[in-house]
Amino acid sequence: MSDVIVGIDLGTTNSEIAVWKDNEVRIIEGENGPILPSCVGIDSDGNVIIGEPARNQYIAYPERTVRSVKRLMGSGTNVTMNGMEFTPQEISAMIIGELKRMAERELGHSIEKAVITVPAFFSDVQRQATREAGEIAGLQVVKMINEPTAATLVYEIGTEENRKVLVYDLGGGTFDVSVVNMEAGVVEVVASHGNNALGGDDFDQRISGFITDYLMEEHGITDIPENAMARIMRAAEDAKKALSSQPFATVREEYLLEKDGVPFHLELELSREDYHRMIEPLVDETMEAVHFVLKDAGMVASDIDEILLVGGSTRTVLVQQRLEDMFSMQPRSEVNPDLCVAAGAAIQAAMISGDRVHAVLVDVTPYTFGTAAIGEIDGLPTPDMFVPIIRRNTPIPVTKSEVFFTAVPNQEAVEVRVYQGENRNAIENLEVGRFRIEGLRKGPEGQEIIAKFSLDANGMLEVAAIEKATGLEKHITIENVLSGSGNDNITQARERMRDLLGQEESSSQQGPQGAQTDHAARKAEELVEKARAMLDTAGDDDREDLVDMIDAVTTALESGDEAALDAALEELSDLIFYLES
Ligand code: AMP
Predict the structure, then answer these.
(1) Domains held by the chain: number
(2) What percent of the chain is modeled with pLDDT above 70?
């Protein structure tokens, strides 16, 4: 017998269980990790199966499997599984029972009490049905709390000041957005909106539609067997997840099906850009709900102090971009968005038990890392637009990549500058490294170069540039980027960069030709630095000329075209002379 109270997130797609133990939140792991798919089924031997195995049999045996039962809670509608009828409470109780067993196995004692979370919009009847599900599973439900409240507890525990928090929760099959007020440690949901038929599954559908269209249009395949369809759906979800951290994903399924008696292998590339186009209407719909909820709460975007991301689908880059555009702040997601609500339920449970609780700590990067590219700042063209790749507060270790494009035809090289900081102007940030990738394939401008950043928990940043078409790769490793130098200690970091640059230079020096190019390169660096310093004070026309010329110099430098470099340097030098006088 134990007095431990567990926290349960009983989700539409997935469920999780957590507990406050040894002064921290512990997420319970089952056989397949901490996420239990909210699926129940009967297998071919007549046994009840819960979680992953039930989810796996859904496509083949939908009549023997139940998913998304949360949508039916309190509705009075029963479900049929293998010819037998069950109430939604009974199905939910099986899921809760499995979570309880997971916890008992890991903790080594029985569990009798739980806090269970419910959506803020759940009616009393739906809440009552959830409580019953817990009781059928043999648990005393000591409290039910709203999901956005749980998420807020995870992030804001210990905060005494008054905060207005927007909790944006996009899971597999549901979407909720709530405005939460936190005052003197008390969390209250002010307004809530949502759509319980919108989520990551719809994103998967868009991708699987794209794949089946491709099979039909490019290969004339219209008859897709059930098992091939199941593989397509899985592959679509995998591609979607990959696109949250990289600009391209390849869907590769060998022996997917047979076409005219011959095995057909699927290989199809999807870019993040095309994927975003597919899901844009769905994301727009969620943003409309955000507007509604602010209106209901009598607030405007600038009243919100913090945005919290909950639910696995909030890893989608487009979702984060839209929220950032609307609120001009970076949403927080450092606590795993799949596990955040269960963690909050465990914190609430600990508070009920009288434990002293504190905020959940995760290893995150305190700085943003990125590179520079030609772009616009405040509508003005610049060669130094900062492109963040790993954002501040991202849990580490992490790997993220972005695509860039060559600027001129037959460009032979690209210089990758690595910065730490938050300023939109890269040169206002701290340059922590720089390297060149050379020997690019000849071709028109717009060749894709992928910049890949990997940051580990020891503060080691590895940056790679990869030419997508050929796989040509160059990378550098920068040590101790998290050592707390911040922007205060720029000199030290500059020295580190100079050391790095020194190494790069010495390794590329190859006799007189190299020395000659080096001289031009140094002159170019000097002039470009001077020109950049003038950007702030120059008039619009001069500024545009400066940007064009900086661009011309950098491009000539990158392509190794000495004549073009000389010409560009002369022009830039003239302009600087003219502006100085
Ligand atoms: P939840 O219901 O909160 O567990 O969220 C499940 C949904 O999150 C599913 O649709 C997943 O496919 C989706 N998901 C999980 N990881 C990612 C990711 N890295 N990028 C985009 N969606 C994800």
Answers:
(1) 2
(2) 93
**Residue 492 carries which side chain, given as an amino acid letter?**
Q
Fill in the DSSP letter of residue 173.
Answer: S
Same domain for 477 and 525, yes or no, is no
Q: Is 316 close to ligand 1, i.e. is its CB under 6 Å away?
A: yes
The residue range of the domain holding 569 is 518-581
Pocket test for ligand 1, best of 198, 313, 338, 400 (most atoms within 8 A of CB): 313
Residue-wise pLDDT for 434-458, tens only, equals 999 999 999 999 999 999 999 998 8
CA within 13 Å, CB half, 246: 18
CB-based contact 156:182 (threshold 8 Å): yes
The two structure tokens encoding residue 116: 């269970």
Domain boundary residue, one of 429, 454, 482 = 482
Distance (angstroms) between ligand 1 centre and the Cα of 292 equals 24
Give me 21's structure tokens: 């133990």
Q: Residue 186: in which H helix or E strand, if any?
A: strand 186-195
Ligand 1 pocket residue status of 237, Cβ below 6 Å:
yes
The DSSP H or E segment spanning 187 is strand 186-195
472 domain-assigned: yes
CA–CA distance, 90 with 57 (Å, rounded to integer) = 20
390 in the same domain as 464: yes
Kindly list the averaged pLDDT for each block of 10 residues, start to end, along the chain of length 581.
88 96 94 96 96 91 94 95 96 98 97 96 94 97 96 82 94 94 87 92 97 97 91 96 98 94 96 98 98 96 96 97 96 94 96 87 88 89 93 92 93 94 92 94 94 94 96 94 59 49 38 49 79 79 83 77 82 84 73
Return the DSSP state at 246: S
Rounded Cα–Cα distance for residues 83 and 173 (Å): 25
As a whole number of angstroms, the distance between CA 6 and CA 348 comes to: 9
Tell me, what's the pLDDT at 149?
94
pLDDT score of 563: 79
Strands 461-467 and 473-478, sheet pairing? antiparallel
Calculate how far, in angstroms, residue 200's C-alpha sits from the geometric centre of ligand 1. 6
The whole-number pLDDT of residue 526 equals: 79
DSSP string covering 379-406: TEEEEEEEEEEE-TT-BSSEEEEEEEE-
Q: Is residue 397 part of a domain?
A: yes
Q: Which two tokens stand for residue 338?
A: 């799949």
For residue 267, being part of any structural domain is answered with no
473 and 383 fall within a common domain: yes
DSSP3 helix / strand / coil % (the chain, rounded to 5): 40, 30, 30
Dist CA 418 CA 503 (whole Å): 16
* 3-class state of residue 574 by DSSP: helix
Check pocket membership of 313 for ligand 1, CB cut-off 6 A: yes
In a domain, 568, yes or no: yes
Residue nearest to atom 2 of ligand 1 (CA): 171
Residues 385 and 460 in one domain: yes
Q: State in Å, rounded, how far the first CA of the chain is from the last one.
A: 86
* Signed CA dihedral, 298, 303, 306, 312: sign only: positive
Same domain, 402 and 470: yes
pLDDT of residue 258: 93
Phi, psi of 543 (to 5 degrees): -60, -45
Contact call for residues 236 and 278 (beta carbons, < 8 A): no
Q: What is the CATH number of the domain that holds 555?
A: 1.20.1270
